[in-house]
Write a structure and sequence with these properties.
It is built from two helices and 28 strands. By secondary structure, it is mostly beta strands. The strands form three sheets. The protein has a 13-stranded mixed beta sheet with strand order 3-4-6-8-10-12-14-16-18-20-22-23-24, with no helix packed on it. Strands 1-2-5-7-9-11-13-15-17-19-21 form an eleven-stranded mixed beta sheet. The protein has a four-stranded mixed beta sheet with strand order 26-25-28-27, with no helix packed on it.
């Protein structure tokens, strides 16, 4: 029988609203949580009491992290004898001091933080540096065999004794000399104008030549760039159009692939087999004439020349050239025509009559001029109307001449009588 049926018929029923029950934590889940807490506490305690362990401690000019029994400072050199040591920085970053580091055999990498300044780095058998930040410097790096620089960071190197590999994410600035450098995908090699180098193998990654002045190339023995399915980048100073302007290479090998040329952060072209840059970037050149009217807009290859359109000058003006040079285009520009106003014509005075010679100011007698009688346009022989008139004139002239001859003869006879 239910509780409701047991109540008397005249009694009031009390209804209690349901409540959300509290979630019960199973005992099976409590034990793993407690165990994990105990493990974490134990690890913290072990780290705190572990012998020879320090988070960061000065060692000469360096701030060093790692087991204290894995490194030692003898007053002039920091000796690293085991893995796990990181030179995080300088104990006094503002002092500008540096120190020497010696890395023994069996140490795979020396980890370096930021703004670490090493005078001489000796490596007996390690494979290189792992960077964790920018601003690092190594003046002289002596190693037993070739070494690599890797991880996210940057280091400036002076003299490097053995071939060097620039591995993914690392940036190496070569300020001194090295026998050979290989650049891999993701790595960046920056050449300083004072650097000297034997060979460069560029199989991915970036070769930064932007610090080298145009026309003052670095001399190197060989440069091999590219390869099947590789993407390489050469960073050049703005205005460069050939690799020979930056590197004087005795042996150049362009092995295909895509080698992009970047200048001022823009991809301007592609490296060709002969070392020239195929410039693909363009600029717009707009020519305007009288009253700013657009004459033509031309798309010109970067560093190329534009061709000017014909210009018409309005009445009273003449075209006087353009307001800027457009034989070497580096940016989109507007070139405006210049015009000069033509000079006004000078009024000419009326001619003055000539004065008679001999000082006689009297007016000279007018000179009779012969009257021109045009000749008949056709000869009498043609049988036209002009023929009889000409014949009559000739007959009259002959009659006058005969009379004049008779008069003359008569006078001569009278004179004789």
């Amino acid at each position: 029988m239910s509780a409701r049926s047991a109540l008397p018929a005249d009694s009031a029923e009390t209804v209690v609203p349901p409540r959300c029950p509290k979630a019960a934590v199973p005992r099976a889940s409590v034990r793993p949580l407690a165990l994990a807490s105990l493990v974490c506490a134990a690890l913290v305690a072990l780290c705190a009491i572990a012998p020879g362990r320090a988070l960061a401690a000065p060692a000469g000019p360096f701030d060093v992290e790692g087991p204290t029994d894995a490194y030692a400072w003898d007053g002039s050199t920091l000796s690293v004898t085991a893995n796990g040591v990181t030179i995080a920085g300088m104990a006094d970053p503002s002092s500008g001091s540096s120190g020497d580091v010696s890395v023994g055999t069996g140490v795979n990498y020396l980890d370096v933080g930021s703004n670490v300044r090493i005078g001489t780095l000796e490596m007996a058998g390690t494979t290189g540096l792992r960077l964790a930040g920018p601003g690092n410097e190594v003046s002289v790096w002596n190693m037993a065999r070739s070494a690599g620089v890797s991880e996210e960071g940057a280091v400036t190197l002076g003299t490097v004794q053995q071939p060097l590999e620039v591995l993914p994410s690392a940036t190496v600035v070569l300020a001194g000399g090295a026998p050979a450098v290989s650049i891999w995908a993701g790595g960046t090699l920056v050449l300083d104008p004072a650097s000297s180098l034997g060979t460069i193998t560029h199989f991915g990654g970036t070769l930064d030549l932007s610090r080298i002045p145009l026309g003052s190339p670095l001399s190197i023995v060989g440069y091999s760039v590219g390869g099947q399915y590789t993407s390489n980048t050469i960073v050049a100073p703005f205005g460069a159009t050939r690799l020979s302007e930056l590197l004087a290479v005795s042996n150049l090998f362009v092995n295909g692939g895509d080698t992009a040329i970047l200048e001022d952060g823009e991809r301007v072209g592609t490296l060709q087999d002969d070392g020239s840059f195929l410039i693909t970037a363009t600029r717009a050149v707009t020519f305007v004439g009288w009253d700013g009217r657009v004459l033509d807009t031309e798309t010109v290859p970067l560093f190329g020349a534009a061709t000017a359109p014909d210009v018409s000058a309005p009445d009273g003006y003449r075209f006087a050239g353009w307001d800027r040079d457009f034989s070497y285009i580096t940016q989109s520009v507007t070139v405006a025509a210049r015009f000069e106003k033509l000079p006004e014509p000078t009024p000419q005075p009326a001619p003055t009559p000539a004065q008679p010679s001999g000082g006689n100011t009297a007016a000279a007698s007018p000179t009779k001029t012969s009257k021109y009688i045009p000749a008949p346009s056709k000869l009498a022989a043609t049988g036209d109307a002009a023929g009889p008139a000409v014949a009559e004139a000739i007959a009259a002239t002959a009659t006058v001449a005969a009379i004049a001859a008779l008069v003359l003869r008569g006078r001569e006879r009278l004179g004789k009588g």
